[in-house]
């Protein structure tokens, strides 16, 4: 397996509707989960070559991270679910700042995963600080990484930088027309847009023989788009290769952080992957499936471990692909598997026992 990185550059004038099940249409996220990315790529291959053409993907499935924001040349990662190592975690402003954080830069992530002391890295911590905040305090990066941000942000002071938005979520009005009465009704849909030289990115661990196929599928997916409201022009992107960031290796680590959604195998559960020292978030994944054999239907629900979770690693943390085809005998029910990937893409971590929980 080789690790590649890809940037998804939003098309000019476009945006993304990256919704979440159970939330209003007015809500749109700035990230796209790994299981949805896998399903979208799988659907592209099935549409291009039929079910037989998807066997290679299933025999050697890629390990994909979820899709996260980037700014300039700086990729962002989910804030890990571990305790931040601080000498004084209860000084004014620190607890509030930690709770607000959603994303971190490669330097900050590496320090957190290695259990380094983070005193002096939060702007509320000491002055001057080795770290700075963006996106109204939701993004944490090292001061030395600000040179990787878009050029027009290089001369901003800390307060101006904190106010800058890498992404924005707007409410866009739409009109629904009743087919019988011809009456219209206005509703709103959330749209995520990115600042210039910003967008989305992800990591992929690929079989060397499948890199060409994978990148071809990704190009096709960019034309069709990801997320919802694609018929309204949302979700389209172009693809750029990027240099994978240097991160702690999961090999021989006692703990790992997953950058993807993860569904453990029974063997991994028995080995204690969710045991002592693990800190994880469970997400109940449902939604709808689109099948060439019939109308859209609800998928079988499956629980995943969310990206950013810390897992014990007594055995390699791999995960599995799950069939979420609905199980019922009814006309129009799909007669084929519906795959959802819970294969983990991980980086190395260690248990941190001191400091403040993030």
Brief summary of the model shown:
The protein folds into two domains: 2-242, no CATH class; 255-357, no CATH class.
Quaternary structure state of the chains depicted: single chain
Give the overall pLDDT as a whole number: 88
Distance between the termini: 33 Å
Portion in strands: 25-35%
Mind describing the biggest β-sheet? 6 strands, antiparallel
Morphology call: globular
The SSE order reads EHHEEEEEHEHEEHEEEHEEHEEEEEEEEE
Q: In angstroms, what is the radius of gyration? A: 21 Å
Overall structural domain count: 2
Report on the structure:
The protein has 358 residues and is of the alpha+beta class. The protein has two domains: 2-242, no CATH class; 255-357, no CATH class. The chain contains seven helices and 23 strands. The strands form eight sheets. Strands 1, 2, 3, 4, 12 and 13 form a six-stranded antiparallel sheet that branches. Strand 10 (167-177) and strand 11 form a beta hairpin. Helix 1 crosses helix 6. It starts with a strand and ends with a strand. Residues 352-358 have low confidence and may be disordered.
